[in-house]
Amino acid sequence: MVTKLMFIASMIAGVAVWDLFHALNTEPWDTPFGPAALLGVGFVFGYTGRRHPILWSLGILLGQAIAGMAIAMASRGPNLFLPLGLLFLVPLTLPALIGALAGAGLAKRSLPAGEQ
């Protein structure tokens, strides 16, 4: 149950990151703050859910894809390049994966030896 809630929360975080940059009239890959924000969000999810760091970065990716598609469809309508734009989200999510793995690693190191 906790894993499902964390996955949903990671999707919401992905939507929030995308919406934040949309409110700033840019996209996360157009600014150096985008990868930094994803690294931080991934780290938080990796630290709190140390057993499934890859799952959290997948949730962040799906949340960004949902937000990006919704914003694109609302502002420009259907676009033939939308699938290509979704493919660009995969490398953009690498900072979230790196952050999640780093957070999970730090969380595992900070536990007592018997609880790892």
Task: Please explain how this structure is put together.
By secondary structure, this protein is mainly alpha-helical. The protein has one domain. The chain has helices spanning 2-23, 33-48, 53-75, 82-92, 94-110. The radius of gyration is 15 Å and the shape is elongated. The protein starts with a helix and ends in a 6-residue tail after the last helix.
SSE inventory with pairings:
Blueprint: H1 2-23, H2 33-48, H3 53-75, H4 82-92, H5 94-110
Query: DSSP strand (E) fraction?
Result: under 5%
* Rg calculated over all Cα atoms: 15 Å
Give the CA-based shape.
elongated
User: Can you write the helix and strand succession as a string?
Assistant: HHHHH
The biggest beta sheet reads: none
- How many beta-strand elements? 0
The percent of residues in helical segments reads over 70%
Stretches where pLDDT is under 50 for at least 5 consecutive residues are: none
Number of domains: 1
The DSSP helix count reads 5
Q: How many angstroms does the end-to-end distance come to?
A: 21 Å
Structural class by helix and strand composition: mainly alpha
* Average residue pLDDT: 88
What's this, in brief?
The protein has helices at 2-23, 33-48, 53-75, 82-92, 94-110.
Defining traits:
116 residues, mainly alpha, single chain
